[in-house]
Amino acid sequence: MNRERLYLFDTTLRDGAQTAGVDFTLDDKIAVAQMLDRLGVDYVEGGYPGANPTDTEFFARPRTEKATFTAFGMTKRAGRSAANDPGLQGVLQAQAGACCFVAKSWDFHVTNALGVTLEENLESIRETVAASVAAGRETMVDCEHFFDGYKANPDYALACARAARDAGARWVVLCDTNGGTTPEEVADIVGRVAEVVPGKNLGVHAHDDMGLAVANSLAAVKAGARQIQGALNGLGERCGNANLTTLIPTLKLKPDFSDRFEVGVSDEALAGLSSLSRAFDELINRPSNRYAPYVGANAFATKAGIHASAILKDPRTYEHIAPDSVGNHRRLLVSDQGGKSNLLSELARVGVEVDKSDPRLDRLLAEVKAREAQGYAYEGAEASFALLAKRALGRVPDFFTVESFRVMVSRRRDPLGGQITVSEAVVKVTVDGEPLITAAEGIGPVNALDLALRKDLGRYQPFIAQLRLTDYKVRILNGGTDAITRVLIESTDGDGEVWTTVGVSPNVVDASFEALTDSLTYKLLKANAPAP
Question: In which pathway is this protein known to take part (predicted)?
Answer without folding.
Answer: Amino-acid biosynthesis; L-isoleucine biosynthesis; 2-oxobutanoate from pyruvate: step 1/3
